[in-house]
């Protein structure tokens, strides 16, 4: 029975370099003395993840790649979209379905949190003059029931929204 040996990262990157210089996968496999399927999987991994490093991790495999995570975060930051819109955008871009819970987790990891836009009446303080509570934390949305994402949320605005206090 043959023993499987792991291809070092230096040779993995060398194979990617050869293929970027338009050398065929079969020629790269011959130069490395490995099967063409090894080089094909290596090339597929490089195109999808921008990496050729093997990670030995236990547990359930990730649904999204790091590149897809960056896409979700950038999409959420560019425009204040809802989670269902981000799920649809991801499907259009990658032709793979992911759950809304996965999108929420990825945005949480990037520091983006869900909130509802709160419009409050101005409150006055005798010492400081008029202050507009929560004004910087509101975004116009297509529907007031949809959650919007922003990195400008504060715990006070959430507490006021929960309590119904402006």
UniProtKB/TrEMBL annotation:
Location relative to the cell: Nucleus
Keywords of the record, alphabetical order, are: Paired box
> Region Disordered: which residues?
123-143
Which GO BP annotation is one of this protein's?
Answer: regulation of DNA-templated transcription
Q: Which InterPro entries match?
A: Homeodomain-like_sf, Paired_dom, WH-like_DNA-bd_sf
Gene Ontology MF term list? DNA binding
Which residues are in the Paired domain?
6-67
Give the matching Pfam families: PAX (PF00292)
A GO CC term attached to the entry: nucleus
- Protein name, as recorded: Paired domain-containing protein
Q: Which organism is it from?
A: Araneus ventricosus
